[in-house]
TrEMBL record, chain A:
Belongs to the TRAPP small subunits family. BET3 subfamily. It holds the Pfam family TRAPP. It comes from Camelus bactrianus. InterPro entries: NO_sig/Golgi_transp_ligand-bd, TRAPP_component, TRAPPC6/Trs33. May play a role in vesicular transport during the biogenesis of melanosomes. This is Trafficking protein particle complex subunit 6A. It is found in: Endoplasmic reticulum; Golgi apparatus, cis-Golgi network. GO terms for cellular component: cis-Golgi network; endoplasmic reticulum; trans-Golgi network; TRAPP complex. PANTHER family: TRAFFICKING PROTEIN PARTICLE COMPLEX SUBUNIT 6A, TRAFFICKING PROTEIN PARTICLE COMPLEX SUBUNIT 6B. GO terms for biological process: endoplasmic reticulum to Golgi vesicle-mediated transport.
UniProtKB/TrEMBL annotation, chain B:
It comes from Camelus bactrianus (Bactrian camel). This is Trafficking protein particle complex subunit 2-like protein isoform X4.
Length: 159, 142
């Protein structure tokens, strides 16, 4: 149980550190920090994508991979499953988490809505990294309507 | 007199080798060639598994094809990284579950390599820990 708290604290500090040294408060500077966070999440996701599916059977199709993300990856990192997965069957998936553990300690409602994206960048990278190890190129974005619920949108890039 | 049996382990991703090791070290080019041709067989097996409506999809592919001198075994991970093992045919002591356990050890070591922050995915594997694990496996076989 303490492991979850360790990751949450580390993540909070990572975000705080990147923002503390950011002298450029304009959108350009912020984008840099967001992409650094996303890059970190990407590398971690690549390693997790190799380690977690180890004993599971081979994935048969894209939807299986997404289901794996929603169940096994989310449980491994956040100790809970994703609340809902929707798809348009044309390469876009929306993963919804109604009480995202990294946001749940912040607020419940509309407060701190502008700050929320910083805390989602790492997780977006995590999803993108895990997908990339499993052979799927994608673009992951996150949106928050009301804390602590958030949605991750995964768009598969067909190359 | 005991003759050292040639063995060869390869890790392949996106169809270029990440790691090749063989004992004895001569005729390494021949092993390169064999591994490359066996990739076709691996791909064929993967696509065959995809089409057949089998619930169980194993990662271990089994004996890929026997040539007159060697037997080739394959294993593919969920991240589409292929492990190919070439063993001398005269070594009949190797049973199927031994091969499976060797592949499992390879997979575990490869996962450790992936989790190393100094390793960039797609590079050749230069980890000494991986090397020593492969050496110990080959010594055990040969």
């Amino acid at each position: 149980m303490a492991d979850a708290a360790l990751f949450e604290f580390l993540h909070t500090e990572m975000v705080a550190e990147l923002w503390a040294h950011d002298p450029d408060p304009s959108p350009g500077g912020q984008k840099m920090s967001l992409s650094v966070l996303e890059g970190m999440g990407f590398r971690v996701g690549q390693a997790l994508g190799e380690r977690l599916p180890r004993e599971t059977l081979a994935f048969r199709e894209e939807l299986d991979v997404l289901k794996f993300l929603c169940k096994d990856l989310w449980v491994a990192v956040f100790q809970k499953q994703m609340d809902s997965l929707r798809t348009n069957h044309q390469g876009t998936y929306v993963l919804q988490d109604n009480s995202f553990p990294l946001l749940v300690r912040m607020a419940s409602g509309q407060q701190y809505l502008e700050e929320a994206p910083k805390f989602l960048a790492f997780t977006c990278g995590l999803l993108r990294g895990a997908l990339s190890t499993l052979g799927i190129k994608s673009l992951v974005t996150a949106s928050v309507a009301a804390l602590p619920a958030c949605k991750f949108q995964v768009v598969i890039q067909k190359s | 007199m005991a003759v050292p049996l040639p063995g060869d382990k390869t890790v392949v991703a996106q169809n270029y080798p990440l790691y090749i090791r063989s004992v004895p070290t001569e005729s390494e080019l021949k092993f390169h060639y064999m591994v490359h041709t066996s990739l076709d067989v691996v791909d064929e097996k993967i696509s065959a598994m995809g089409k057949a409506l089998v619930d169980q999809r194993e990662l271990y592919l089994g004996l890929l094809y026997p040539t007159e001198d060697y037997k080739v075994y394959g294993y593919v991970t969920n991240s589409k990284v292929k492990f190919v093992m070439v063993v001398d045919s005269s070594n009949t002591a190797l049973r199927d579950n031994e091969i499976r356990s060797m592949f499992r050890k390879l997979h575990n070591s490869y996962t450790d390599v992936m989790c190393n922050p100094f390793y960039n995915p797609g590079d050749r594997i230069q980890s000494r820990a991986f090397d020593s694990m492969v050496t110990s496996m080959m010594v055990q076989v040969c």
